[in-house]
Amino acid sequence: MNERKQYLEYLALVALLITFFGFFSVKVWDIDFWWHIAAGRNILESGAIPGVDPFGMYDAANACGQTVLKSEWLGQVLLYSVYRWFDLDGIIYFRAGILVLCLAIVYLRSRLAASNSSFALAITALAGLAILHHNGERPQLFSFLLLSLTFLLLDKFAGGGKRWLLYCIPPIMLIWSNTHGIVLFGVAALGLFGICYVLESCWAPSPSLMSRLDKPQNRLMLAVVVLSFIILVAAPSGLDSFKCVIFQQSGPVREMVSEYASPWSLWPATLYYWVFIGVTLASLPGFYSKIYLKQGALVVVLGMISVIGYRYIPLFVLVAAPYVAASLNRILSRIKLPEVAIHLFILVVALTFLGYGFKQEKVFQHGLQEQRFPVGAVAFIKANKLGGKMFNSMNWGGYLLWNLSATTNLFIDGRTLDPYRVAPYTNILWATPEGLRFFEQHNFDLALLPYSSAFSDKRYPVIDYLQNNPGWQLVYQDGLGYLFARRTQ
After folding, report:
1. 394-404 and 33-46 helices, crossing angle to 10°
2. With CB atoms 3.0 to 4.6 Å apart as the test, which of 39, 93, 161, 228 could cross-link to 173 if both were Cys?
3. What pLDDT, in 10s, does the model give residues 14-42?
4. Integer angstrom CA distances of residue 115 from 2, 35, 324, 342
5. Predicted TM-score (pTM) of this structure
6. Nearest to 367 by CA among 10, 15, 74, 83
7. Final residue of a domain: which of 314, 334, 359?
8. What is the DSSP string of 44-73?
9. Which domain holds residue 306?
10. What is the DSSP string of 320-356?
């Protein structure tokens, strides 16, 4: 019976992971993917991390500019390398593989946290659903994986006390601090875990408080936390990362970028996240014990952070899910669960959803979502050897940067979180007197614009301005928008 139960458990897990791998394998869609691989290409070609914007688009002499240029250089190089070797399909399966590996770690950590297999499988499935829309092709993928690995090491250390596990964390932080800016979140979560770990030791039976505190494990834990912070500060972007996070969370940028929005405002895309929040709230009584201090503190603190911004959802879910599963296991320990039946149910449901995905062509996709990028306009520009200064949609900036940076000077792309550039951009789109003055003063040669705003479906007034302006002509139009060129004298 035990062998059959274990066999079904692993079979259900494999089916679950394959199903999520399929649903994570969607066409390339992230508008920022293109400028990330353009940056990676530039870094490899120049052999250096840039100090100024290599594409001449924005002023990098500020904290956010330096952070954008330097904090993700390794992640950009890795993404570009995958693309160069395996093209878009390689990126798709690379992304899916990382996310599924994160879910496999959730399951493993759930078992380490003393959750039975039924709760571990259920929380892994819920975690996968909660992060299903966080599958952008960008360096944040590395943050998800490195955070998961960090807490796998921490949980194994807390459970067995093997010191070598902690020695692995500073190298992870070194890689992470050169890969993605959310390493700040990782170091903060590590610090919270470390502080709670030391506090838990204060309640252990021992003659004196000092003898409880002055343990090799405590000293090593604090040393790892401090060393990780030093690594963070010594990274290429250094303290600029702190300044940029503060600016992004408190400044006008927060209102302009959807990933900084509250998860509630992005309903129903965050439906499963809110289900996860409900399950987490139900698990809180299971943390009411001194020996679960660090787990409970992480769940509560990271949960509160996730409510602030959509981008923090996967970080909270991947860290907290195993602790939530173990807590529910403790709360419901008196209930005898039919594990074999639950494993079989999860197996059938996973395979059913996978079959549905195949039928609807939602799994194991190829290529890119062409309706999100001006593929036709770029082909027209290349074929007709157009170039010069271009006013462009911010959402298309990354794709244009990747394809046209050698011949075209763009106005804006997804890297530009500077309100001083976004303000004139917005004024131009809506053809305010100030915006039109700026547009003419800038002497653009080309203008590539979508039919309407992605948020309101309202037609941009600047399109009418260009159509009625004798100095401009419409040279290309397709299902996405217009390409205007300045008339030559």
Report:
1. 30
2. 228
3. 999 999 999 999 999 999 999 999 999 99
4. 17, 42, 9, 14
5. 0.93
6. 83
7. 359
8. HHHTS--SS-TTS-S---SHHHHHHHHTTH
9. 2-30+62-359
10. HHHHHHHHHHHHTTTS---HHHHHHHHHHHHHHHHHH
